[in-house]
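A quick aside before the break. I want you to see a complete sequence-to-structure record at least once, exactly as it would be stored in a machine-readable document. Don't worry about memorizing anything.
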Amino acid sequence: MANIKSAKKRVLTAERNRVRNVAFRTSIKTAVKKVLELAKSDDKVALNGALSRAYQLCDKAVSKGILHKNTAARKKSRLTKAVNKLQTK
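That is the input. The structure line, written in tokens, reads:
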């Protein structure tokens, strides 16, 4: 453990940020799973809404510094590709 007061504060701040970042990444994963489940069904309206929400979460993560912009772009691209593949079946 750090001895300097400011270093102790940084440890607490880093832990708080880590917990928030993990929660945000988990919400992205949940949104992606929901989109893939809806892609198997015939509900286009719900699918478009869920896909939009997943995109929104990825973009928000980039703006908050949780994800790198290329990582978010890759996630969105792969998600779209998977949805298109599931819909053609």
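Two observations worth writing down. The chain has one domain: 5-88. The chain has three helices and no strands. We'll return to this after the break.
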